[in-house]
């Protein structure tokens, strides 16, 4: 369909690019070279576009070096005063990639980077809490980490996902 889109003289929009990036980075076998090529073709990439590559590298391939390199490219774009819509999506993909592979320390470090002013940490904290529920050991540390994240949140800003994540932690560890 991508070729048909071009053949008919249509230019892909953000949604079309996102769908193609997700196909390359989520469906097996992952094709990161093609995903990189597509990202480089997008004149105004969004956080979701960067997030797709971060997901592919971090979650699918467990290649945190390359996932961080994609994040650095997005941050460089922001520092050059180029707008990136929804950059928090990329941040969430990085934190989630660490969390799903039980790298909570690295996930917390990624969350705490202060290069992005006004970044809402709510979704990042929910992602970390969900990550704590993935562990099979060290109940005290993971319940404590989850509880500290929960307690630090402004109560009015907690979402149903926050409570769902906490329930998952307590279900896991009793």
The portion of residues assigned to helices is 55-70%
pLDDT averaged residue by residue:
86
Question: Termini separation (Å)?
Answer: 49 Å
Could you give a short account of the major beta sheet?
none
- Which outline best applies? elongated
> Would you identify the regions where 5 or more consecutive residues have pLDDT less than 50?
none
- Count of helices? 10
Radius of gyration: 18 Å
DSSP strand content: under 5%
Note down, in words, how this protein is organized:
- This protein is mainly α and 174 residues long.
- It is built from ten helices and no strands.
- Helix 3 packs antiparallel against helix 4 and helix 7 packs antiparallel against helix 8.
- The longest helix has 16 residues.
- The mean pLDDT is 86.
Q: What is the topology?
A:
Layout: H1 2-7, H2 14-26, H3 32-41, H4 47-60, H5 64-79, H6 87-100, H7 104-112, H8 122-132, H9 139-152, H10 160-173
Quick structural gist:
By secondary structure, this protein is mostly helical.
What are the salient characteristics of this protein?
174 residues, 70% helix, mainly alpha, single chain, elongated, 10 helices
């Amino acid at each position: 369909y991508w070729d048909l889109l071009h053949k008919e003289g249509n230019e892909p929009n953000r949604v079309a690019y996102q769908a193609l990036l997700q196909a390359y980075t989520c469906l097996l076998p992952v094709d990161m070279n093609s995903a990189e090529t597509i990202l480089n073709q997008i004149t105004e990439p969004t956080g979701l576009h960067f997030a797709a590559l971060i997901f592919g590298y971090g979650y699918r391939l467990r290649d945190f070096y390359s996932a961080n390199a994609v994040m650095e490219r997005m941050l460089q774009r922001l520092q050059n005063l180029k707008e990136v819509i929804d950059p928090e999506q990329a941040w969430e993909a990085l934190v989630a990639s660490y969390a799903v592979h039980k790298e909570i320390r690295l996930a917390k470090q990624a969350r705490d980077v202060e290069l992005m002013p006004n970044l809402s940490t709510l979704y990042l904290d929910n992602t970390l809490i969900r990550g704590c529920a993935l562990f099979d050991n060290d109940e005290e540390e993971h319940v404590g980490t989850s509880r500290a994240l929960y307690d630090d949140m402004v109560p009015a800003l907690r979402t149903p996902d926050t409570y769902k994540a906490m329930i998952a932690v307590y279900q896991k560890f009793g």
